[in-house]
């Protein structure tokens, strides 16, 4: 005997679809969504859980330890930004010269290696002597970061 069940893909009462009567609402195997297994997200570097850290707001990849923070008073392309001595789990695009608020700099955009979101930039070279302290440092926009581990 064939039970008539409502076939959700075609919205009809159907006896021809191989939907087992014990699984009402289940899709036939040919119409079931594929269950692609995504590889687990792994980061290149994990920061110690005992330290206050900044992570990517989009994928939670670790970005920097609080101890690497130099200043919170920078301006990014889309708002407030932080200057860091060093960061982890970021990639660099090719450097280009940009006229920023503090003068001409050679900068390379940086992105999260996990989710590929552009986070800010790295100062490659500063052309004004008063700005040389920024060379080799990183800007990450506050809107792309979240605080984790031990913040009160």
UniProtKB/TrEMBL annotation:
Keyword terms: Metal-binding, Zinc
Keyword match Zinc: yes
Xref: InterPro entries: Yippee, Yippee/Mis18/Cereblon, Yippee_fam
Chain ranges of the Yippee domain: 52-149
Molecular function as annotated in GO: metal ion binding
Family: Belongs to the yippee family.
Descriptive protein name: Protein yippee-like
Organism per entry: Geococcyx californianus
């Amino acid at each position: 005997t064939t039970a008539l069940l409502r076939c959700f893909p075609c919205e009809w009462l159907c006896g021809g679809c191989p939907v087992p009567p014990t699984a009402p609402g289940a899709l036939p195997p040919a119409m079931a969504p594929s269950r692609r297994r995504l590889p687990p997200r792994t980061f290149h570097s994990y920061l110690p859980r005992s330290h206050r850290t900044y992570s990517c707001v989009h994928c939670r990849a670790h970005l920097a330890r609080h101890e690497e923070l130099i200043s919170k008073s920078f301006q990014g392309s889309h708002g407030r930004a932080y200057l860091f001595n060093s960061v982890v789990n970021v990639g660099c695009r090719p450097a280009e010269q940009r006229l920023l608020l503090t003068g001409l700099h050679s900068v390379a955009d940086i992105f999260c290696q996990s989710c590929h979101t552009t986070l800010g930039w790295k100062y490659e070279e500063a052309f004004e002597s008063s700005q040389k302290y920024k060379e080799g440092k990183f800007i990450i926009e506050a809107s792309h970061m979240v605080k984790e581990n031990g913040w009160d």
